Amino acid sequence: MTEPAALRIDDVHWAPGGKPVLRGVSLTVEPGEVVGLLGPNGSGKSSLLRCAYRRQRPDRGAVHLDGADIWRTPAMRVARRVAAVTQDAPADLENHVEQIVALGRTPYLGALGRLTAGERSLIGAAMARCEVAHLAGRSYASLSGGERQRVQLARALVQEPGLLILDEPTNHLDLRHQVELLGLIGELGVTVVAALHDLQLAAAACDRLVVLHDGHLVAEGDPREIVTERLLAEVYGVAAEVSRGGDGLPRLSLPLPPKRGEGGRAACRDEAASA
Ligand SMILES: Nc1ncnc2c1ncn2[C@@H]1O[C@H](COP(=O)(O)OP(=O)(O)OP(=O)(O)O)[C@@H](O)[C@H]1O
């Protein structure tokens, strides 16, 4: 099994064009920990993740992987330890699925660029695990959003990372695949940092939750304690009710507007039809 990585983010600032996006964020993630990164749109989650996987160099502060500054570590060495699944994952759309998954081996390839038998079986196993083996010969361009997401996850697994970075990994996934993905990341035994929007899923799947707001880290801790009515009001501007299940995990009741008319949506349809 791959050795889980230790991640330490120290006082990271990033202000593209002078606009502060990350304002002194510090976060330590222990080897094997699964951390959920929460926060409203534009709070800085993707930016922080880009700093963590060496895509974006912070203006100030540092990111340490296994104790070494990632900007003083050769990119190829970082690529062997960190894999990222993001919304804008680079992919040649004409490549077929197996080729995309095989790209995960790029940091390990020798001068000839040939895959070993062991690597081929790793690729097969990752495709099976992410339920994309049946798509192996399909062009990436022809896949649905959820299928692409699972292919990108298989590519990341093939990389055998010690740190797996996931930016909204459940986006596009149906309910079963969301549950399976979050179950899978807990089983991998590697360090995971995942930006998530579904607070209930995040609380159920993560060891710890971290909340960003306007570029600041405003809360972190046990998922049973982090998601509160006060946090939802202050950070998300939503007056939701939070109850606790028997497992102590949060259950959200959202303040949706009442449906129009006594018959609800059916009445709306009737009104529209008679208009
Ligand atoms: N390269 C860039 N140049 C200028 N501004 C940027 C750049 N990248 C991100 N931003 C801005 O930084 C802010 C944070 O963006 P980021 O994508 O990190 O947020 P997020 O929390 O991931 O949001 P979402 O939940 O919508 O994905 C946004 O206002 C965004 O417009």
TrEMBL record:
Cross-referenced Pfam families, in alphabetical order?
A: ABC_tran
User: PROSITE patterns in the record, alphabetically?
Assistant: ABC_TRANSPORTER_1 (PS00211), ABC_TRANSPORTER_2 (PS50893)
- Give me the stretches of Basic and acidic residues compositional bias: 259-275
Q: Which organism is it from?
A: Sinosporangium siamense
Species lineage: Bacteria, Bacillati, Actinomycetota, Actinomycetes, Streptosporangiales
Identify the keywords attached in UniProt to this record, alphabetized: ATP-binding, Nucleotide-binding, Transport
The ABC transporter domain, residue ranges: 7-239
Key word Membrane present: no
What GO molecular function terms would the record report? ATP binding; ATP hydrolysis activity
Protein name (Swiss-Prot/TrEMBL)? ABC transporter ATP-binding protein
Region of interest (Disordered), residue spans:
250-275
